[in-house]
Amino acid sequence: MGKKESIGIGLMGLGVVGSGVAKTLLEKEDAIAQQVGCPLKIKRILVRNPARKRTIEVSAQLLTTDPQQILSDPEIDIVIEVIGGETEAYEYIKEAILRKKHIVTANKEVISKHSLELFTLASKNKVDVRYEASVGGGIPLISPFKRDLLANNILAIHAIINGTTNYILTRMAKEGLDFDPALKQAQELGYAEANPANDIDGVDAAYKLAILATLAFRTEIHPDDIYYEGISRLNSRDFRYAREFGYAIKLLAIAKKEKRSIQVRVHPALVPEDLLLANVDGVFNAIQVEGDMVGRVIFYGRGAGSSPTASAVVADVIQVAQNIVLGLRPKPQLKLYKAKRLIPMSRIKTRFYVRLTAIDSPGVLAQISKILGDHFISIASVIQKETDKKSGTAEIVIMTHPAQESALQKALQRTAKLAVVKEIGNFIRVED
Amino acid sequence: MGKKESIGIGLMGLGVVGSGVAKTLLEKEDAIAQQVGCPLKIKRILVRNPARKRTIEVSAQLLTTDPQQILSDPEIDIVIEVIGGETEAYEYIKEAILRKKHIVTANKEVISKHSLELFTLASKNKVDVRYEASVGGGIPLISPFKRDLLANNILAIHAIINGTTNYILTRMAKEGLDFDPALKQAQELGYAEANPANDIDGVDAAYKLAILATLAFRTEIHPDDIYYEGISRLNSRDFRYAREFGYAIKLLAIAKKEKRSIQVRVHPALVPEDLLLANVDGVFNAIQVEGDMVGRVIFYGRGAGSSPTASAVVADVIQVAQNIVLGLRPKPQLKLYKAKRLIPMSRIKTRFYVRLTAIDSPGVLAQISKILGDHFISIASVIQKETDKKSGTAEIVIMTHPAQESALQKALQRTAKLAVVKEIGNFIRVED
Questions:
Q1: Beta carbons within 10 angstroms of residue B60's beta carbon
Q2: Residue B99 counted as domain residue
Q3: B36 phi, psi to nearest 5 deg
Q4: Looking at beta carbons, which residues of chain A come within 8 Å of B139?
Q5: Dist CA A132 CA A137 (whole Å)
Q6: pLDDT at A368 over 90
Q7: Which end of chain B, N or C, is less packed with Cβ atoms under 10 Å?
Q8: Secondary structure (3-state) at B191
Q9: Burial bucket for residue A328 (CB in 10 Å: 0-12, 13-18, 19+)
C-alpha cells in the first residue's frame, strides 16, 4: 500500500461552523499535516449560494451547489457535514457512507434521530462516523462516554446544554428581567436566533440529551422519548423567590437510571446554589455525569459558536485522517445492548416549587394543604410574599417534599378551582 | 488468526488503587467482556506481603511476590502497574514492554520522568502505554489532550490537581484554621498521608503538571523544569484578607504559553472568587484548559481515591483489550515536535499580595512604596489591618500591579531591612 500523499476533504456547509472549520483547516494546514502524517486538502465546499459574501476567503473554484460534486468524487476521503437540519443532511450522510466516505458531523438532529441506522450502515461500509461537535461544542463529551468512562455504570446526567436559554436565564436572574426582554437582549447579541423556538422550547436540549443518554445507558434513546418543556413560563419573581430558598433556576437536561429503568427529561429546575451547576452562567454549558466508580465529573465550556464547534469537528477529522494514514480500521461504535425501559413523566418523583396568588385570609393555606395532602404531597416550607392590599390577595410560595408528577398536576388542577385561589402562577421541579 | 478466548491481565500492586481495579475487573466481568468481545482474566497479582489482610477477596493462588511471574508469563497481554513510586515500577514497566506486553499505569512519577523513553520503547515493541489514571483520578484529562483538543493551540492550563492540599486550603478558608490543625484534620480523615511532604510541598502537583504540559505543548516537560512551592507558609489571616479583596487561595498548577516560550509553575495563588476554579472545594480537582479555538474548558471531579482512579485504569484496560480483539495496532503516542523554551521563574510577571507587619506610624507606607517604586512595582491597593496597640505595630496588606518575580523578591529583601518593618508575613502570587 503506497503512502497517501494527501487526504481529501469534502465540506458540506459554509455557515457559522463551516467557516470556522474551513478557516482552521487552511490556517493550521502545516500543524495538522504534522499530526496526521500527510496534508488534508479541501477538495470541494457545498454552499447554497456561491455569490454570497463571506467572512472567510476561499477560492471560488472550491464552491459548488451540487452535493454530487462531493459525494461522487473518489478523491474525497472524509465528508464534513455542517449544514444542519434533518432531511438533506441525513440523505447526504447516508449516500456518503454508501460511497465509503468517512463522516464527521455536528448535526445533533440527524444523530439523535438516525444514529443506529447510520452507524450500522457505516460499519457495513467500514467507515467512521464521528459527531463530537453535536453536543456541547468543543467540550469533550462523546469521547468520554465512548472511552474514558467505559468502566462505569452511568447513574445520572444533569446538563446545561443550551447556551441560548442559559444566557436568558442568567439575565433574568442577575438583572431581574422578565422573559421577553431577556430574549430580546439575547437576540440582539446574536445568542438567540430570530426564530428561537427550538432553543427556548427545549427541543435543542432534547436532541443533545438523546445523544448523551444513548451513549450513557447503551440503549437507543430517541428525542421523542424525552419529555421537554421550555423556559418561557418563567417569571423574574420565580428567580427572586428561588434565591430566597437557596436555589438558582436552570434549564436542565436530565437522564437518570433507577434500578433498570431510565428517565429522560428537559425542563427548568431549581438547583441548589452551592452546586457548581448553579453557577454556570451566560452562554456556557456544563454537563455533570455521575458514574458508580468515578462519582460526579463535570465538563464545562462554550457549547456553541464557530470556533469552539470547529475545534471538535477538526479534532474528529484529524483522528479519522490519522487512522487512514496508519491503515487502522475505524473502531466500532458503542454497542447498544441494553433493553429500553423508560419511566413516563407522570410517574417521576421530585420536589416542587409552587407559586400562586390567593385571597389574603387565614383559612387559605389550610384549604391548599388539604388538597395537597389528599394527593399525598406534603409541604416542606411556605413563604407568603407581596400582599396586594388593594385586591386583598397575597402571593404564596410553597416548597413540597418529593411528590409524584401526576399527583402534583392533579392537586394543582383542584387548587386552581378553589374560590380563594386567584391564579397558579407557576410550578417548577427541584433537582437536589 | 484465531479469535482470542480471553485476555490475560497481570496486576502489579494491590493497595488502594489495585484493590479498586481488581474489584472492578471481578465484579463487572460480564459487562466488560461484552464491551471487549472476550473476557479479561486476572492471571497474577504482585503484592509485597501475601499474608496481609485485605478489603478485597482474591484467590490466594493469584498472589505472588515475584514480578517475574507476571513479566515472563506469555499468557499475560496487559500489565497494570499500580504499585506507585519510581524505580521498581519503572523497571517493571520497561521489562514488560520489552516482553511485548501492553501497559496501563497510574504512575505519575514514572510517566512524568520517563515517558519519552518508555513511549519510544513501546512503539518499537508495538505495544500501548496508557496512563489516564496518572492525573486527576477518573477525570478524563490525558485523552482530551490526545484526541479532543487536537485542533487547538493550547494557551494555558490552570489546575487544582492535588486533593490533599485543596482539602486543607478549604478547611483553612471556611473554618479559619491555620495550616497545622487543618493538616491534622486531613490526616485523620485519610485525605493526607502520615508523611504528607509530597502533597503539601507541591511535588505531586508538579509531576502531574509535567504530564499535562508535555501533552499540551508537544515538548517534553520534566518535573525538574517546574518551579514548585507548597502551602505550609499560608496563614488563616491570608485567607481572610484575600477574601476582602475578592479572592480565594488555591494551590495552582500553571502552564502558559507566551509567544514561543512556556512557563510552568506550582504555587499557592489568589484566584478571583467569581471564577469556577475558586469554588472548587474539598478533595475535588478541576483542570481548566484554554485553547485558541475551544476557549476555556474545565474538567472537574474526584482526583484520587480507589474507585475514581480504578475508573480510569479499567477504561484504559478495556480500550487496550478492544484493540487486541479487533487486531488494531496501538495508535502512536502524541508527537513531541516542538522545541522547549522555558521562561525562568525570576522573569515571570504576576500581581502580588504582600502581607507585612510594621510600626504604626505615618511615614511607613511612604518608605515601603519608595522601595517598591525603585523596583518598578506599583501598588494597586493597600489595607491596614489589626493594629496592635501594645507593640505599636500594624499589619499592612498590599496588592501590587503586575511585577516581575525577581524585582519583587529584591524589593521584599530591602523592605525587610527597613527599621520600621517588623516582619514580611507572606507574599502570594495572583492569577487573574
A1: 8
A2: yes
A3: -85, -35
A4: 294, 297
A5: 8
A6: yes
A7: N
A8: coil
A9: middle
Q: Which of B113, B208, B256, B257 is catalytic?
A: B208
The single residue listed with the C-alpha cell 508527537 is: B335
Does residue B121 sit within a domain?
Answer: yes
The answer to whether A143 faces chain B, any CB pair under 8 Å, is yes
Answer yes or no: is B198 within a domain: yes
Q: Are residues A15 and A50 in the same domain?
A: yes
Q: How far is B301 from chain A (nearest CA, A)?
A: 4
C-alpha cell at A371: 388538597
**B17–chain A nearest CA distance, Å:** 12
C-alpha cell at B288: 481548566
How does pLDDT run across B349-382, given as a tens digit for each residue?
Answer: 999 999 999 999 888 999 999 999 999 999 999 9
Average confidence (pLDDT) over A141-164: 97
| Cα–Cα distance measured from residue B286 to residue B300, given in angstroms and rounded to the nearest whole number | 4
| Residues 257-286, chain B, touching A (beta carbon < 8 A) | 276, 279-280
Whether residue A103 is predicted with pLDDT greater than 60 in this model: the reply is yes
Q: How confident is the model at residue B387 (pLDDT cuts 50, 70, 90)?
A: confident
Q: Looking at the structure, tell me whether residues B57 and B71 fall in a common domain.
A: yes
Of A144, A301, A328, the CB nearest to B295: A301
Same domain, B281 and B411: no
CA pair distance B33, B47, nearest whole angstrom: 26
Q: What is the mean pLDDT of residues B56-61?
A: 91
Q: Minimal Cα–Cα distance from B226 to chain A, Å?
A: 26
Report yes or no on A340 lying in a domain.
no
B63 and B181: one domain?
no
State whether residue A144 sits within 8 Å of chain B by CB: yes
CA gap A231, A249 in Å, rounded: 10
The verdict on a CB contact (< 8 Å) between B295 and A138 is yes
Domain range spanning residue A82?
7-138+306-326
Using 50, 70 and 90 to split pLDDT, how confident is the model at B1?
Answer: very low
State ipTM. 0.95
pLDDT tens digits for A337-357? 888 899 999 999 999 999 999
Residue from the list B34, B140, B291 with its beta carbon closest to the beta carbon of A311 = B291
CATH classification at residue A415: 3.30.70.260
Same domain, A52 and A178: no
> CB contact, 8 Å: B148 with chain A?
yes
Say whether B208 is catalytic.
yes
Same domain for A280 and A187: yes
Query: Which of B311, B318, B319, B334 to mutate to probe the A interface, most A CBs <10 Å?
Result: B311
Chain A contacts in chain B segment 326-385 (CB below 8 A): 326, 328-329, 331-332, 335, 337
Across residues B120-143, what is the average pLDDT? 97
For residue B153, list chain A residues with Cβ-Cβ distance below 8 A.
28, 31
CA pair distance B262, A181, nearest whole angstrom: 45
Which CATH number fits the domain that encloses residue B285? 3.30.360.10
Size of interface A-B (CB pairs under 8 A): 176
Preferred mutation among B9, B131, B293 to probe A, highest tally of A CBs within 10 A: B293
For residues B101-119, one letter each, b for 16 or more C-beta atoms within 10 angstroms of the residue's C-beta and e for the rest, the string is bbbbbbbbbbbbbbbeebb
Q: How close B13 gets to chain A, by Cα (Å)?
A: 19
What is the model's pLDDT at position B241?
Answer: 95
Tell whether A384 and A362 lie within a shared domain: yes
The domain spanning residue A73 has which CATH number? 3.40.50.720
Do both A155 and A289 map to the same domain? yes
The H or E element containing residue A123 is helix A108-124
